[in-house]
Amino acid sequence: MRFRCSYLLLVIAGAMLLAVGCASGAAPAGSGAAPAAPTAAKPAEKAPAPAASGAKYPSQAVEFGCSGDPGGGLDLFNRSVDEGLKKENIFTGTLNITYNATGGGNAAMSSLAERKGNGYVLMSNANRVFLNNMMGTTKLGINDFTSVARLATDYVMLVVPKDSKFKTAKDFMDAMKKDPKSISIGTGSAPPNDDYLNIIYPAVAAGIDPTQINVVVFKSGGDLNAKLLGGHIDSASTSFSEGLPQLKSGDFRALAISAPQRMKDAPDVPTWKEQGYDVEISHWRGVWGPKDMPKEALDYWVDAFKKMHESATWKQILTRNGWYPEYVAGADFQAALKAEEEKALKILQPLGILPKK
To answer: Last residue of a domain, which of 253, 275, 297?
Structure first.
């Protein structure tokens, strides 16, 4: 009897405790009852900036700006570099090719100069990186960028349509000497550039006033070739790689090339030198980064381009495009640019085509 009373008292006490718990809103774990309403939260604070990830360079996409238009020689260069890096698994990230050819590449150079210290942007160009400054079309020069690497050399041809009356470079220069403005010569971008120098240098050697030459500028090598094929101009100064397809098809006849010797892909095309004009122009193409490019980024690309330069894929690309290897990188590239700039100034200044400063 005493045991039953004790048990009854325990049951009643438990019920009372359960009632108190329910009244206070505390639900037993696993009961399925809704939790008590939370207390009012404090105003949200600004999330702290994420800590540096420490990711090894490159950890994001890289922009590879082309200072020429689609269809031109620099476009071919950018796409070839992308191909060489990817096929050899040297760079497995994303290389976004962009185009900005306005002002003979000045717009691309301005864009790069504005991104000082950025390790994720590159730009392709040629010797316009100092020629444009020399000609007074921009204040930017080689010291406003980081010289990364020079990768390939092309040469420049003087071409005419297959049915042209001009059969040799001498025929052409003799006609120019009589009336320089009577012959239109197209180039794939605005002077100054190697296409332009390929006209100026032999003309001066032939005793022709370079300021009287009728140069017609087009937006790219592809556009230039189309206009020559369509009979809109008499001749064109174009890179070997850009004119090679039309040369092989027989639509163009090359009167001269700026190479030191005849090209194996076009053995019938004579050099300027063998025809009596002391002209040799190496139409190289290279890569730059912005000024103050981070060292880790510069070192990465110098090494990447060296590996690409030594690869079987790059050798195949050079052969396919009619290019020649010309690798020099970093500080050596910068020194080579300065030496070439000084040489070009000595040649161009006496011609009277540079602006007075």
So the answer is: 275
Entry pTM: 0.78
| Pairing status of strand 62-66 against strand 95-99 | parallel
DSSP for residue 294: -
pLDDT for the residue numbered 257: 97
Q: Are residues 184 and 245 in the same domain?
A: yes
Q: Determine the Cα–Cα distance for residues 103 and 139; give it in Å rounded to an integer.
A: 13
Question: What range does the domain containing 294 cover?
Answer: 62-154+282-351
User: How would you write 165-229 as a 3-class SS string?
Assistant: CCCCHHHHHHHHHHCHHHCEEEECCCCCCHHHHHHHHHHHHCCCCHHHCEEEECCCHHHHHHHHH
Within the chain, residue ranges assigned H as helices are: 2-23, 73-87, 106-113, 128-134, 169-178, 194-205, 221-229, 240-249, 295-309, 312-321, 330-348
Task: Give the per-residue pLDDT at 261.
Answer: 94
| Domain containing residue 237: CATH number | 3.40.190.10
pLDDT confidence band for 15 (50 / 70 / 90): very low
> Closest Cα to residue 294, out of 74, 122, 76?
122
Identify the pLDDT of residue 54: 53
φ/ψ of residue 261, rounded to 5:
-150, 170
> Are the beta carbons of 119 and 293 closer than 8 angstroms?
yes
Give the integer Cα–Cα distance in Å for 151 and 66.
15
Residue 7 placed within a domain: no
- 187 pLDDT band, cuts 50/70/90, is very high
User: How many whole angstroms separate alpha carbon 59 and alpha carbon 40?
Assistant: 41
Count, residues in the chain? 357
Range 220-229 average pLDDT: 90
Q: Which residues contact 56 (CB under 8 A, 6 or more apart)?
A: none
Distances (CA, A) of 318 to 81, 221, 262, 300: 10, 18, 17, 23
Which SS3 state, helix, strand or coil, does residue 278 take?
Answer: coil
